[in-house]
Amino acid sequence: MRNVSARFLTGFTPVMLIALPLFGQDKKPASPMSGMGGLLPMLLFMFLIIYFLMIRPEQKKTKERQKLLGNLKKGDKVMTAAGMYGIVGNVKETTVMVKIADNTVVEFSKNAISSVMSSDGSEKTPDKA
């Protein structure tokens, strides 16, 4: 039994001689703010990327859509979110009366209007405006 432990110690000793200097080094205690020096600029950079790639384009689309819905007037050809085409007959504060066929007028919420057709037949959507 003594031979087994001696073999184990002889194989273990070189590993300990290598590892002891690694674990035995005196290090200065890290201050709580030492990691923030590199982390904070990276977080700010990531926020800027997210803002310019996601938030700002969405705000532009929303602003264009509000402008499109605010400029609705009688006689505009529109397409609803349901895919129905019609002509605006009356514009109220939050709703629009759309004539979709002869003697058929339907009241839609302004939010249900997905695009306005121009006189040449092309659509004006918030993405294409």
Query: Roughly what fraction of the amino acids lie in strands?
Result: 15-25%
Q: If classified by CATH, what would the architecture of the domain at 73-123 be?
A: Roll
Low-confidence stretches: none
C-alpha geometry: rod-shaped
CA-CA gap between termini: 87 Å
Q: What's the mean pLDDT score?
A: 80
User: What is the C-alpha radius of gyration, as a whole number of Å?
Assistant: 35 Å
Give the % helix: 40-55%
- In CATH's first tier, which class of the domain at 73-123 applies? Mainly Beta
Number of helices: 2
Question: In the CATH scheme, what's the topology name of the domain at 73-123?
Answer: SH3 type barrels
Extended strand count: 6
Question: How are strands sequenced across the largest beta sheet?
Answer: 4-3-2-1-5-6
Give a structural overview:
By secondary structure, this protein is α+β, with helices and mostly antiparallel strands. Among the domains are: 39-71; 73-123, SH3 type barrels. The chain is 44% helix and 24% strand. It has two helices and six strands, in the order ααββββββ. The chain has helices at 2-23, 36-70; strands spanning 77-80, 85-91, 95-101, 104-109, 113-117, 123-124. The protein has a six-stranded antiparallel beta sheet, with no helix packed on it. The radius of gyration is 35 Å and the shape is rod-shaped. The chain starts with a helix and ends in a 5-residue tail after the last strand. The model has no long low-confidence stretch (mean pLDDT 80).
